[in-house]
């Protein structure tokens, strides 16, 4: 189905940000690993988080969806896969990466797979790293990608991994590490991209009763080839158990970026609820970005107010710690005056799509003046009406819908927003931006 603009009224009002996808994934998994019964409030039920629910149920957790909360009876880390069939994770790369290491805690083999897009995501870096921890995982197609077969057994010990590709590899090791036989010491090699996502992981691990030591270390080790002597991040997790708890999922700055950007582009005033000033989400950077582009932002404990006159200025921005903002910021830049430089997002090339490549291709369809680089792009403001393709990427569909505030736009395969923001159309309509699928 195609996504189009149905109507634009007075843009503004009060709307609640959807729950965080990143925290929802982690809450489901940690509650499933914990001892006892957890209640998870304000959960996001999207295609991606439902994949995490399915795999945790397949490995022994009892999960019941109630009106106000998700009830999870945990396994205490004693996972059991009762089926020999592969577990289908659809398009959820987060679930695949986080659960690859977790699945080694099962008492029998686990095969994780997904749709065609998921089977393009690189996994070899994680597979190679966890072998030092006694985990035997393999790509069944021998290409470093899903389907992934994980055998039982997680000894623990010491390993290292590059931080330049995906923070989810790091979170995968950390989440499972307290349930290993010996605990884990993990060294993250430079460059450490998307660090806030790992901070989120440590934050929620603490909520479920697990303590982690972190710091820097001058590492000398022949197994670290080009980094034989360097200052690296070190995480140390001793053997311990997760404890069940009641947990409230905070609002998602990634999804809220579309609401905030709509006000910035069109002009108007809005209050976005459920966005916390103390949040560890890297995508909170959107507030600084929009402020530099011309919006007026006021941040309160649990909500954000934004106002704009609709005049945007080009900016230079490093998105290394907030790669999920790439497409939103690119669309904003295309509608701003002047030239914007977006850098630091080479790791966005291994998301649902190669987001640098697909974003540039779709902007060119709208006659946008831009230059693509290995780690970002340079965009000079100005574009026209047209038709673009989501390429199956939920963030592209949502970000490009913002073009409709000034130009006619149609997004082929626009229904994919269900992956992370199921009520995207309804939320946008609450601020006066009505979209429809046709």
Key features of this structure:
alpha/beta; UDP-n-acetylglucosamine1-carboxyvinyl-transferase, Chain; 2 domains; 4-stranded mixed sheet; 12 helices
Question: What report would you give on this structure?
Answer:
- The chain has 438 residues and is α/β, with parallel strands linked by helices.
- The protein folds into two domains: 3-18 and 312-437, Alpha-beta prism (UDP-n-acetylglucosamine1-carboxyvinyl-transferase, Chain); 21-248, Alpha-beta prism (UDP-n-acetylglucosamine1-carboxyvinyl-transferase, Chain), CATH 3.65.10.10.
- Helix content is 28%, strand content 26%.
- The chain contains twelve helices and 24 strands.
- The protein has helices at 21-33, 47-58, 93-102, 124-130, 167-176, 195-207, 253-266, 285-293, 326-334, 355-365, 394-401, 424-430, and strands at residues 3-8, 12-16, 37-41, 62-65, 69-73, 87-88, 110-113, 137-139, 148-150, 157-162, 184-189, 213-220, 229-237, 246-248, 268-273, 296-299, 303-308, 316-318, 339-343, 369-373, 376-380, 386-389, 409-412, 433-437.
- The strands form six sheets. It has a four-stranded mixed sheet.
- A hairpin with a 3-residue loop joins strand 4 and strand 5 (69-73).
- Helix 5 (167-176) packs parallel to helix 6 and helix 9 (326-334) runs parallel beside helix 10 (355-365).
Total domain modules: 2
| Share in helix | 25-40%
What would you call the structural class?
A: alpha/beta
**How many distinct beta strands?**
24
Going across the biggest sheet, name each strand in turn: 22-23-1-24
How would you state the average pLDDT, rounded? 95
State the major sheet: 4 strands, mixed
What's the overall geometry? globular
Q: CATH homologous superfamily of the largest domain, by name? A: Enolpyruvate transferase domain
Number of discrete helical segments: 12
- Amount of beta strand: 25-35%
Identify the CATH architecture of the largest domain: Alpha-beta prism
Q: Kindly provide the radius of gyration, computed on alpha-carbon positions and rounded to a whole number of angstroms.
A: 21 Å
Kindly, what is the distance between the CA atoms of the first and last residues, rounded to a whole number of angstroms?
6 Å
Low-confidence stretches: 219-228
The CATH topology of the largest domain corresponds to: UDP-n-acetylglucosamine1-carboxyvinyl-transferase, Chain
The top level CATH class name of the largest domain: Alpha Beta
